[in-house]
Amino acid sequence: MPLACALVLAIAAATPRAARAADYVPGQVVVGTTAGPFPSVIADVANQKGTMAVASSVPAPQTLVLNLPQGVSVTAAVDRLRHRPGVSYAVPNFVAHADGLGWIPNDPGRVHHRGGWQQLQWNFLPAAGVNAPQAWANLRADHHSGGRGVTVAILDTGVAYRNWHGFHRSPDFNRTRFVDPYDFVDHNRFPLDREGHGTFVAGIVGESTNNGIGLTGLAYGASIMPVRVLDRYGDGNAATIARGVRYAVRHHAQVINLSLEFYPDVTAGDIPTLIDAIRYAARHNVVVVGAAGNDYATQVAYPARAPTVISVGATTRDRCLAAYSNGGSRLDLVAPGGGDDKPLSTDPDCHPGRQLPPIYQMTFFSPTHPNRFGYPGGIYGTSMSTPEVSATAALIIASGILGPRPTPEQILARLEQTAQPLGTGRPNPDYGWGLLDAAAATAPIAALAHR
Predict the structure, then answer these.
(1) Most buried one in 220, 265, 383, 441, CB count within 10 A?
(2) In the prediction, which pLDDT does 25 show?
(3) CA distance 246 to 243
(4) DSSP element (H, E) containing 78
(5) What band does 94 get if pLDDT is binned at 50, 70 and 90?
């Protein structure tokens, strides 16, 4: 039975800031002194052999900032200085952060300067996006790193996760952990991407982040399980996808991402083997997230329409439903998918006719050149919004805010309760429970009481 990838390509408000672990300037210590004359104390402290280099500045009377030589840790220097005569205090040079900005990784994007990813990844920012910076700060406050400890299975066209026989690993997967890969199309252990879609989707979830390369992944730190169930044209069948779902469950995936859809006339009775596999995942406490589809339809496509799948529609940078996105009573929530607005007369945020941006992530530009990576334009669809929800589910699990083993029902409820309302009422057929808010979904329960 034919299957269409849920993408359109050439083919196809902030929560209260959570407390977090403090940052400080590497290689610097701030020292306060009590003894005089002050210049002699500076010379005595700054010239300790084997401990200090020189005083870099004097920010206030009886205070100096010291640069440490290479190999001397801030902690060790602070411990030594606190016992020196004439030193009233010695502390790291702590860094403050503007309230509400969250954590901004250093990934440069196209502009090649720190934090440049923000110029492309509007879908990860506050307002029209999912507010990834605050979500990352929430996890860091609890001493977690992104989605570390959680495995997300990407059932797709494969992933550019390694070098092998002419295939190349995406440069921005250099810190991403891949586990239990399998190719159900060619029946081998090397599910390499021939189309680019799966690499794009995997990047949204787990692209390496704060590594000075490319863009960011929403659940960076999570392990990615590449499972190839779609061929080089982006097509697959129910039996193959069902095998992929069962494989992911047996190999301990906690989240399964299905950025794919059947045509709207396909019913549950037409794909019983896949419906059974999805029920199998639910019985084993695995979250399954599916694309609502890109058919301009008023009903969600399968497999997202299955009762235990979290169904995801797509929004634009205007916070409007994307023109192509399916909706209906089975829609759970929406997330940024890019593209143009749907003409919804009841929604003042919708401005049809405007040319709005797509979604950007690193993948290869052409299936004929799977070793030339970059940020191709024109990519939008519910395929892009779905992994944002999968990644947020991984962040919720990693954070432990719902306990060590939250059920799919608990995670869905958390996503719905923390979504930003859009449209008329909650839920509604255009937006479900609203726009995904990764920051609110990962915030401490006490913080949500003040939203």
Answers:
(1) 383
(2) 74
(3) 5
(4) helix 74-81
(5) low
b/e code 376-413 from CB counts within 10 Å (16+ = b): beebbbbbbbbbbbbbbbbbbbbbebeeeebebeebbe
Locus of tokens 């990693």: 398
| Omega before residue 427 within 30° of 0, cis | yes
Query: β-pairing, 369-374 with 363-366?
Result: antiparallel
CA distance 29 to 98: 22
Residue 396 phi, psi dihedral angles, 5° rounding: -60, -45
Tell me the C-alpha distance between 411 and 21, whole Å.
26
Question: What is the model's pTM?
Answer: 0.80
**Residue 24: predicted pLDDT:** 61
Q: pLDDT tens across 251-294, in order?
A: 999 999 999 999 999 999 999 999 999 999 999 999 999 999 99
C-beta of residue 273 within 8 angstroms of C-beta of residue 168: no
**pLDDT tens digits for 151-190?**
999 999 999 999 988 899 999 999 999 999 999 999 999 9
Q: What is the DSSP string of 396-441?
A: HHHHTTT-SS--HHHHHHHHHHHSBP-SSSSSBTTTBT-B--HHHH
Neighbours of 32 (CB within 10 A): 15
**Rounded distance, CA 414 to CA 439, Å?**
12
Specify whether the CB–CB gap between 375 and 116 falls below 8 A. no
121 contact partners, CB below 8 Å, separation of at least 6: 109, 129, 132, 215, 216, 360
Residue from 327, 324, 390 nearest 356 by CA: 324
Average pLDDT of the segment spanning 411-429? 96
- For every residue of 118-159, DSSP letters joined together read GGT-GGGSSTTS--HHHHHHHHHHTT--TTTT-EEEEEES--
More confident site: 74 or 406: 406
* CA gap 77, 62 in Å, rounded: 19
Cβ atoms 130, 437 nearer than 8 A: yes
Tell me which H or E stretch contains 291: strand 287-291
Share of the chain above pLDDT 90, in %: 71
What integer is the mean pLDDT of 206-233?
Answer: 97
